[in-house]
Amino acid sequence: MPATTQKFSMTASPLRLRWFTENCFEIKLANGKTIVIDPMLPKKPDPNNPQMLDSFYSGYTVENLEGADYVIINHTHGDHTAQLREVYERFEPIVICHETVAMKLAEFYNIPPRKIFPYVANQCYDFGDFSLETFPGLHSGSRKDVGFAESWAENMKRHADEKETWLGVAGSMFNTNFIINTYDNISIAFNAGEFTPVLKNAWNNRRPNILLKHLVHIERDNPLETMADIIQTVGAQLTLPMTHQRGCMDLEYAYKGKFDINEYADLVNEMLSKRGLSSRMFSPQSGKWHTLNVSLVQDK
User: Fold this and answer.
1) What is the pLDDT of residue 143?
2) What does the CA dihedral 289, 265, 242, 205 come to, rounded to 10 degrees?
3) In the 3-class helix/strand/coil scheme, how is the chain assigned residue by residue?
4) How far is 26 from 83, CA to CA, in rounded Å?
5) In this structure, are residues 289 and 18 in contact, taking their beta carbons and an 8 Å threshold?
6) Mean pLDDT, consecutive 10-residue segments, the chain of 300 residues?
């Protein structure tokens, strides 16, 4: 029998992912199946369409997606669902959304009912390619909360279609966070909106590997300390921030217009290091694939 060669390192690559803008991610699992979260991939902003804010344009569109076997919807505001129909036309994915909005979402975006998978919070669903744990969420608070009638009227001004108005209002009510568990034993936690005490307690017990965290409404008064506290509580090895393409509104406010996402990540990492934690925040470049590697390397 020929002599074998001693290996000094080994790397496993259980998944790849890329972020586009806002909450939109494309995640490719080791088995080749692809998950898309919150399909917001508008073409270049149209001056005749004031609803398509410039801050959402990333330079990438649905044509840039490589796949979509599953689409997970966090909530039904247009900046999380705008390209759902285009994604469906290209890939015919299973669309996973809260049961309360499932009928209206299917109707508005003309998705066949059998391709909609309704979920409720506090459940675990096995899709064969991955499992999904769902957790009740709370949409980020605005600077001034308004009553239902005012909220409806405000949405009516934005949307000509009553179904879209309904989805807009429902989007503030039904915000669901989740953990994707792959069969390579990798867990990805997704948090859009507030990091509530309910979520804090649930995720502190689960300790996911990766945290995808929305930054738009992170605490204004102490955004570095708040983010470091969240990362320490969740225990994720890597945290990827989700932002509007052209900045984080409340963080811009906190930093008086001088906010830089990469500097922010560096400062959070310094704070984590001082606490003796190996967890790190990493701000990925929009549209670029990143591979998660698990490596064991012999020390020199």
Assistant:
1) 46
2) 100
3) CCCCCCCCEEEEEEEEEEECCCCCEEEEECCCCEEEECCCCCCCCCCCCCCCCHHHCCCCCHHHCCCCCEEECCCCCHHHHCCHHHHHHHHCCEEEEEHHHHHHHHHHHCCCHHHEEEECCCCEEECCCEEEEEEECCCCCCCCCCCHHHHHHHHHHHCCCHHHHHHHHHHHHCCEEEEEEECCCCEEEEECCCCCHHHHHHHHHHCCCEEEEECCCCCCCCHHHHHHHHHHHHCCCEEEEECECCECHHHHHHCCCCCCHHHHHHHHHHHHHHCCCCCEECCCCCCCCEEEEEEEECCC
4) 14
5) yes
6) 79 93 94 96 67 68 96 92 96 97 95 97 97 92 58 58 79 92 96 89 94 74 85 96 62 57 90 97 93 91
Report strand pairing: 210-214 vs 238-242: parallel
Q: Could you tell me if residue 37 is left (phi over 0), alpha (psi between -120 and 50 degrees) or otherwise beta? A: beta
- Say what the pLDDT of residue 67 is: 98
Q: How many CB atoms sit inside 10 A of residue 263's CB?
A: 12
Residues 6+ apart with CB under 8 A from 236: 189, 207, 208, 209, 210, 211, 279
CA–CA dist 195, 197 (Å, integer): 7
Which tokens hold the place of 249? Answer: 């509104």
Size of the chain, expressed as the number of residues it contains: 300
Q: What's the rounded Cα separation, in Å, for the pair 26 and 150?
A: 35
290's tokens: 């990143």
Q: Domains along the chain?
A: 14-287 (3.60.15.10)
